[in-house]
Structure formats: structure tokens, C-alpha cells
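Researcher: We're teaching a course module on how sequence relates to structure. For the next exercise, students receive a sequence and then see the predicted structure as C-alpha cells, so they can try to spot secondary structure elements on their own. Here is the exercise chain.
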Amino acid sequence: MKQKNHALPNDVSALQVLVLQQQATIASLHDDLNSRQAEIDRLLAKLRRLYFGRSSEKAELKIIQLEHRLEKRLTEDNDQSARVDDPAVPPLLRLSPARRPLPSDLPREERCLEPQESACPACGGDLKPLGEDVSEQLELIKSPFKVIKTRRTKKACARCDVIVQAPAPSRPIERGIAGPGLLSRVMTAKYAEHTPLYRQSEIFARQGVALSRATMAGWVGLCSNLLAPLADAVCDYVMDTGKIHIDDTPVEVLQSGKGKPKTGRLWVYVRDDRNAGSVLPPAMWFAYSPDRKGAHPQTHLAGFSGLLQADAYAGYNPLYEEGHIREVGCMAHARRKIHDIHVRHPSPTTAEALHRIGELYAIEAGIRGRPAEERRQEREARSRPLLMSLEGWIREKLSTLSRQADTAKAFNYLMNHWQALCYYASDGWAEIDNNIAENALRAVSLGRRNYLFFGSDSGGDRAALMYTLIGSCKLNGVEPESYLRHVLAIIADHPINKIKDLLPWNLTIPAE
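Model: And here is the predicted structure for the students to work with:
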């Protein structure tokens, strides 16, 4: 077969033409690669927003479609990268991650397996120990229900007929059949693992125990009444500080005698100053309201004085007018408005705005956990000039944008709340955003996808109470089910004037 001649031309001008052609080809390939990468980044950003946003069948369908498109793009790019002149393209080496050791506190059962041979199968000689191979396997034992039968023996005096008997042990629910372990499992499954009662009923039935949804609903109500003083103590602790994060989220609530549910509200108030170097325990308090009127947070914060980190909800405005509460804005809320536009219609203006705000967040990442005064000094020296530059740049852009443009509306939001958004730069206790409160509401969002609605306003109150205790446990690294099990076992006999001793950060839970 005749081979192609790859000899280069000797003429200088011909060589120049060849070089220019090759440069044009390389530039074209580079532009195509950049466009592919930009499309992949855009699809990934949209996929994340759909995945972490509010779920619906339409959103799930879009996610599937985006996954297929993204997979196709990546496959095409891999095919392009694999087309090289060298046929020997080594496969990628996949490193297996190191397996973590199993927790040492788990109960262990040892099994020793001896060889079946009593003598050497080759020569018949005696066998002597050579060592052993040890491996561990994690096993799950079926949920062990058990019945605790308590016998209280009666004894009578042979002389005066006086009868003596040991007192009946305390129960979380008087004359109830459920122990604190079962009650804590039901409450944790419902409010921490987002498993509705009807699903729990099906799970227990498969384990051989019939517990109706109505029975467990009654337990939830009675336990909520028992734990109410604890939630009140958490509320007192949260309000007894100089800075609170607040946010709210909608919840569907059934209306008696009406065909469709109404929209109630869960409000969360978070005390957490760990980012400013505080060693005081964090906590969160939830409150339910049948609507979103501003009177509710105004009532909740009637005795509070200090910094209120929140979004720009108009219902908070009367709180700031009184003078004892200072408004602190949420930069993440303002950034999200720009990011939403950038995802739909990316432009140099939105990219520049996101970059400038990103510089502010980079500073925050570097000073997180430092003392408040040190954070204030760093912000004054580094963040304040960036904020002033950002303000001037936004005002310049607003002079060239149409008022009806989405970007102009997002920029106007920043300018309308600029003072509140910039306050954090002058106070080391304040945060750049309200993500602390938004993160606290994630449990509600996850639960809402499973139970869909509350059965009544009282159901909303019970949910707020349980979210308070479970959320505060998680903030302090306390396992919620173990905490509820211990508290439910002792709270009925605990003095009400010492209820603070049972708060998650004050209670020592004995090992089970």
C-alpha cells in the first residue's frame, strides 16, 4: 500500500499558509470545547436547582431529561478525547477508598471457624497454629419488640392486716402500653426521618405488631403535651441573646369541613453564634401560625432586643421601627435573585455581580469561627472596600439597564436593602446571610414532601414543638432518639422548676 507523504513544503510562504491553517483548526477546536463545557456547566447548574428546589412530577421529568442530555454530552466528549493516533490508550485507574472501621461501641458476636481437617491432607502430619484471618461483617438485627411485664407483689401484715406494695413505676403515658423507647421511635421517625404514621404502622405490622395510625397519633399528642415545658424552655433560651436568625416556610393544613387545605406557616428562630467564636450552645425554636401575618413574628419577638437577621419580609418592618431591634439583611437572598437570572440568561453583567459577591463570601470563609472583634476588623479592612465598589458598580449598571429588565429588578432589590445588607461589615456578631435559619428549615421541607399536610392547626403546633427539640439536638450533636427516650422516661416525675436540666445541652444521656 502506498503511504501518504507527510513531507513539509520547502517554500516559506507555503509553510506560513500551512501554519495559519493549523492555528485556525486549533482555535476552532478550542472554541468548540469551551462551548461544550459551558453547556455542561449550565445543565449541571439547572439540574442542581431542580434537584434541591421544590419537587414535582414536572421537575422530576426535567431532571431525567437533563441527565440524559448531560450523559450524552459527556459521552461525546469522551469519544472525542479518545480519538488519538496512539491506539494504546490506558484505562483510567479507579482507586478504591479506604474502608472505615466499624464503630467500636457496637455489640459484637465472635465466631471461630476451625479447619475440618484434623491432620495434614497431604502427608498426614500434625497441624499446628499458624495464625488467623479476621474479618468483620455489619449485620442488622430485626427490630426487637419486647413486652415488659411488671409484677408488684402485695404483702399483708399477719397482726394488723396492713397491706404493703411497691409503687407502680412511672410511665410517659398514664396507663399507656407504649414505653419510652417505642414512643421515641415513633416521634423520631415522624419528625426526624419524615416517615408518616401510616407508613410506620405498615412497618410495625411487618414485624408482627399491629399499631394503628390513630393509636400512634394519640401517642404523639400526649407526648407533645408532656414535652411542651421543654420547648418553652428552649424558646426562653433562644430569645435571651443579642442576635437571632428568623425565617419561615409554608405548610399545608387541612380545614375541617372544606375540600382543600389552607396554607399555614412554620417560623424558626435560631440562636447560633459559633461562627463568631461563641462557646454557648446553639438552639432553634419553631412556632406555627395559621397564616403569614406580620403580627405573629411581632408577638414571638415581643421581649427580644438585638440583631434580627432575616429576609426583607415587610411583616418585620414594625419590629425595626420600635428601635430596640436592628435589621440585618441576607446577602444570599439577594445573590439568589441574580443567580436565577444568570442560570436562565447568562451575561457578563450577572457573571461580574456573582463574582464580586463571591469575593465577599471568600473573606467570610477565612474568618469563620474567629472572635467577633477580630471578624469586625477584618471586615472593615477587606469587606467594606469591596461593598463600596460593588455599590458604585451596581448604580453604574442601573443607569444603562431598562427598568423592566430582570437584572435591573435584582439590582434594585440590593439597593433598596443596601444598608441592612452591609451592616454585617461593622459588627462581628452578625453574619453575611441568613443561611443559619434557612438550613434549620430543611427538615420541614423534607417532611413536607412525605406527609404533604398537617391534619389541623394543633398538628402544626405539635410539629413545631418536635422540630424544636429534634433540631436543637442536632445542632448540639445529640442523637435525637436517644435524647427523647431518656427524657420521656423521666420527665413525668421531673420537677417543673428544674426543666432546664433536661435541655439537650444540659442532659447527660446514659449509655443504653
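Model: If you want an answer key for the exercise: The radius of gyration is 32 Å. Residues 241-442 form one domain.
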